[in-house]
Amino acid sequence: MAPASEATTGHGDISTGVAAPSGSGDSNASATRITPGNALRPEDIALEVRTGLAKPTEDVAEYALRLGDDALILAQRLGHWISRAPELEEDVALGNIALDQLGHARSFLSYAGGAMSNDDGSARSEDDLAYFRREHEFRSVQLFEQPNGDFAVTIARQFIVSYYQFELYRRLTGSTDATLAAIAAKAVKEVDYHRDHSAQWILRLAGGTDESRTRMIHGLRLMWPYVNELFQEDDLTRRLAEAGAAVAPSSLREDFDRLTGDVLKEAELEVPDVPAAPGGGRHGKHSEHLGYILAEMQVLAREYPGAKW
């Protein structure tokens, strides 16, 4: 695994590349290889899964499903801001962050599907997993499905998510599972931007008008109850962490608290003192909001299964 104890400070650069095997020659031979100018694509992972070159264990597939569902549900939430953001540049920024999250979701779900079969025995595709699962089959934590609220509420969620995902992906680049490591190596570069974006908005709203500061405080209080679930362990994460394939969620908490605390201190805001929500998303227990998201996201695929342009 990557050196989990290696502390991060601020928004500095980190090394995230996954070196190709020496003497490989063909940079397209494996979706798990990252070389400059040759970014990992979900299509490459799907091809390797179809041809049997990549096949996750059942545990790794379940872990990839969790991370893919987190990103997928957040992408759906953020996409709603397109044409509704407070300024044109922010329209584009939130849209781009949503696309980044969707790309992460496609990669993780494509890989997870390699250990899951359809009725005809074929591996489940990213679309199969996104569009044809029911609410209790999703494994995202509840923070990601929370309503956008006003702009400050969305920024509060982004602030929590981006600092969590950055620490997660930074460590996951050292996974013993080469595909997980490669997906994380690409994702962490994008999430670093998300982190900076949310921190700048926290400072801007907290230091703006009385109204913007009040809304920022309210947004943080609404979202903070869902922080604890991000760092909860279970048997799956313990097994995979011991094997070096996954990151123990609890190991992220110290850096998360330190780095978010630094930003909140600079903004002269307090870490919200609110009780933790029960959670349960990793095991299919969701808030009332996920069903509405899925209804909107899945309706076309379910109404016209197999339809093509």
Q: Give the distance, in angstroms, between the N- and C-terminal Cα atoms.
A: 43 Å
What would the average pLDDT be, to the nearest integer? Answer: 89
**Number of beta strands:** 0
Order of helices and strands: HHHHHHHHHHH
The percent range for strand residues is under 5%
Structural class: mainly alpha
Number of helices: 11
- Shape descriptor reads globular
Stretches with pLDDT under 50, minimum 5 residues: 1-5, 11-36
Task: Please describe the biggest sheet, giving its number of strands, its sense, and whether it closes into a barrel.
Answer: none
Q: Helical content, roughly?
A: 55-70%
Care to give the gist of this entry?
The protein is mainly alpha-helical and 309 residues long. The chain is built from 11 helices and no strands.
Write up this protein.
With 309 residues, this protein is mostly helical. Helices cover 55% and strands 0% of the residues. The protein starts with 41 loop residues before the first helix and ends in a 6-residue tail after the last helix. The N terminus is likely disordered.
